[in-house]
């Protein structure tokens, strides 16, 4: 008997979600709201129109959907958005999903946040079983931070990060590399992250949603970023993986991990283990493709989960092999029309 068949917590192999390319779907990212208290220039227009409240799933419905995925073999849940921590009552969802950690059905419950609400929630997140969080921070300069986020306050995010540290949460900083904006700060970000014991991941700007200014002006290939970083830091190869698209190194001088997410210059789709759910119950099988499945209708059609399970399986059977992001002079528009805040980063 192998280890999997001895593990009573795992669903039987026939019940697990396997896509047409034999990839097991074990990771669900959930955008719990499309709203946000920031308006980052690469993510949202300043005058965003948000979804009508009536279209948005209740926290109880989100719990039921997440729990169905857990029953079908998902081992990792990430709450994202918009800004997940601005949704009213969101801690009830974290608290309730924490039961899957306690039962052993779930390995990890985590969140990607802009950090603004962490002074209030960091300790409670830890109490719900959250162990690691991703915090998005592109600059340590207050004026630049304001320029990038439009509405954000760097001091509040810094307070949030210190609250996370105090609560014992492991923090990974996500920084989007932006040409002409934060490219003079990479060394500072590495030093600062190292000093605070945070891992750091640089992300290439992706062509999602139609926003100004042109993405060609913001796009900075990470191959270039890495070359520059290596002038001042020693990057040691590591085989550390989180099941995500980041490629990780250890910075010898700080001992912390440094990752690069390069959706445009490196294709990571072959090992993709994830799907994304929006706050309206739409499931995207690939971040870079338009195809989606509506899970709200089967969810609301009956209190029984049979229809829902069937809809989830049918969606996974359509998961595409990969995406086709391109940014160059011939492709200035978005690869897909929805913003990152809709699908969740
Ligand atoms: N509000 C939360 C936050 O900022 O962390 C969670 C949602 S946000 C959409 C998730 C991540 O997507 C952030 O790290 C953000 O920097 C990144 N992001 C947003 N738009 C992007 C784009 N067009 N290209 C690359 N990354 C993007
Ligand atoms: Fe809000 Fe996050 Fe998008 Fe910035 S990146 S506007 S914080 S959702």
Number of helices: 12
Oligomeric state, counting identical vs distinct chains: single chain
Helical fraction equals 25-40%
Mean pLDDT figure: 88
Enter the CATH topology name.
Answer: TIM Barrel
Rg, please? Answer: 20 Å
User: Biggest sheet, in brief?
Assistant: 12 strands, mixed
CATH arch. level architecture: Alpha-Beta Barrel
Strand content: 15-25%
The CATH homologous superfamily is named Aldolase class I
- Give the N-to-C terminal Cα separation: 39 Å
Number of strands: 12
Quick structural overview:
This protein is an alpha/beta fold and 345 residues long. It has helices at residues 3-6, 59-71, 90-103, 118-127, 142-149, 154-166, 186-196, 215-218, 222-229, 296-301, 306-316, 340-343, and strands at residues 27-31, 76-80, 108-113, 132-136, 170-177, 199-204, 235-237, 247-251, 257-261, 274-277, 282-284, 292-294. Strand 11 (282-284) and strand 12 (292-294) form a beta hairpin.
